[in-house]
Design brief:
mainly alpha; 0% strand; elongated; 160 residues
Length: 160
């Protein structure tokens, strides 16, 4: 067996584990803890963790796109059936990630900063709405991510 396809698949799987696993951690651990904190404490915790995960996540996305393309080359899979569905879901995940990481997430951080400033109490309803939007987008992306992993397992087992 050629070693390069195996190394490529390993990097692909590790990047998927980190990206989807990170989304699981954020939604199942960090977000619920953050909801129980004051606005100041929430900003102090969620903002740096979110920025760090955004960096790690986009590195993983880059690796997934590179290694995924190489997997297509190495495995010579036809672009049809489940693979086409998987690639469509990946595209949806990319779009949602851009919205989350570069638009809605930073908007929520700005609202957190303004809400914790003197006189910022009036922004609490907007902050709540922004948090709900970011959370919904993150959960939807997580659901897509789990679906992509499942489809990847099916494809890897020959169900394409």
């Amino acid at each position: 067996m050629d070693l390069l396809p195996l190394v490529n698949l390993t990097v692909h799987l590790l990047a998927a584990f980190v990206w989807v696993g990170g989304m699981l951690f954020m939604s199942l651990v960090l977000a619920p803890v953050g909801r129980g904190l004051s606005a100041e404490a929430r900003r102090a915790v969620l903002s740096p963790v979110g920025r760090r995960f955004r960096t790690v996540g986009w590195i993983c996305i880059g690796l997934l796109l590179l290694t995924g393309g190489l997997n297509l080359y190495f495995l010579r899979l036809p672009l049809e059936g489940l693979l086409l569905v998987k690639l469509s879901l990946v595209l949806c995940m990319l779009i949602l990630s851009v919205l989350h990481d570069f638009f809605l997430g930073p908007r929520m951080v700005r609202l957190l900063e303004q809400a914790t400033a003197p006189g910022g109490e009036a922004l609490r309803p907007a902050l709540t709405r922004a948090g709900m939007q970011v959370g919904l987008l993150a959960r939807l992306n997580l659901l897509l991510g789990v679906s992509v992993v499942f489809l990847g397992m099916l494809i890897g087992r020959g169900y394409w």
